Amino acid sequence: MKTKTWLAVVAALLLAVSWAGAEDIAGLPLHVEKLGDGAIRLWLGDHAPTTSVIAFATEKGIVVVDTFGAPKVDAKLREVIARELGPSDFTYLINTHEHRDHTGGNSVYTDCTIVGHELIPAGLAEIARRRDRLLEFYPRSIAEMEGELEALDEDDPKVAALEEDLIYRRLFFEAVEANGELVPPTLMFSDRMTLDLGDTTFELSYIGGMHTASDAAVFVPEHGLLLTGDTMADVWLTDRPGCLAAFMVRDGMPHDFPRLLANWDRLLANRDRIKTLMPAHWNGELSIEGAEARVEYVRTLWDGIREASEAGKSIAEVQAEYRLDARFPELVDSPGFSQQQHYASVTELWKEETGQASAARTLWTLLDEEADEAAILEVLADHAQESPEYFFSEGEFNAYGYIFLQQDKIDHAIRMFQINVELYPESWNAYDSLGEALLRAGNTNDAVTMYEKSLALNPENTNGQEVLAQIRGAASM
Fold first, then answer.
1. Of 60, 111, 184, 476, which one's alpha carbon is 20 to 30 angstroms from that of 345?
2. φ, ψ of residue 147 in degrees (nearest 5)
């Protein structure tokens, strides 16, 4: 991971930030950074990866990009913006995408024209549908964080960061509990839109599908700023990147890769006019080279997977050909990339190109919904078809099996791993994973059998060797 030391971060911030006294909002320190004449960036916290709110003074009023996400905080930030930029009407609020930490404060700006991509309303509706889950998640996670904080010594360096995270999480829980209206944009676009504010221009471009369906970039040429939302960063200023943690094509999300690539090409053609690329969270940075590398990564996968599909290759062949460490070695340790995230991107692009559904994802859903065995066997029967409806991937079956393990749904995990063994009987890793699930279930004898089969296929499987040694050592005591 490419990170900066805290000393470097603090030095950079001291150079760039004008402090509004020792001011804080909701218990989090306020930072105000001057981006140029008539442009500022605000954020809260020294550790928590909060959203940056960016504001511009223009001939036709103040334009704000993104909100903090909690209305009571955004009301205070609006007051700070007015104080810093001088008396003026607030004219526009621009959302870079649908997530609550960017749109949750829209209700504070209902006197403005709220601008965003046309898919934001659908995203907000989905957020509203998930409210019950959040009402369960936040109390549980807050209690866990409180317990973790209590267990630390007061001089532990983790304390300050954890205290900020706790405040941040409580603010969002409070907003979810209040169940205020999630306000959608009142002016929307599908591809590109330009807002002319006299002395300042805002060029909005769709770049959706890598973080949310509604991602948009905002280019402000008069300030040389390209605002990139949560889509990418090539430097993390903290070891907790939050929303900037992953650069990947996400499962089930609407995509339009030709349009995404065309718009990124158009934006990056302004290389000589772009002074700063700015992610939407204060703790990430993006260079022009980092953006170009990430766009080229998507292009390489999109073009290559399409050609592979047309040539009749299988997804297994594509996954082998486009391994991250072999095909994109320069990105292996780059922020936002991991072998698992890359694997997910390849899989999603394959689905996009072929129209095939994921057998692993389908079976995971069926198992989770307690479907009968007949429904499971119907999907598995597709494996032998000449023109299959589903694609089958050993790695994906394994990944979904581990999701069940993480959820403590041991029986479902065992079934998923059993399916993987049946489909890929020469895979030592499939046996190893099944052995782990059986061991978790207390079925030691069958677990030993699976580990032994794994080692027979791959004698260098050190995990299998160690587990068997532990089992046999415990049995001899």
1. 184
2. -65, -40
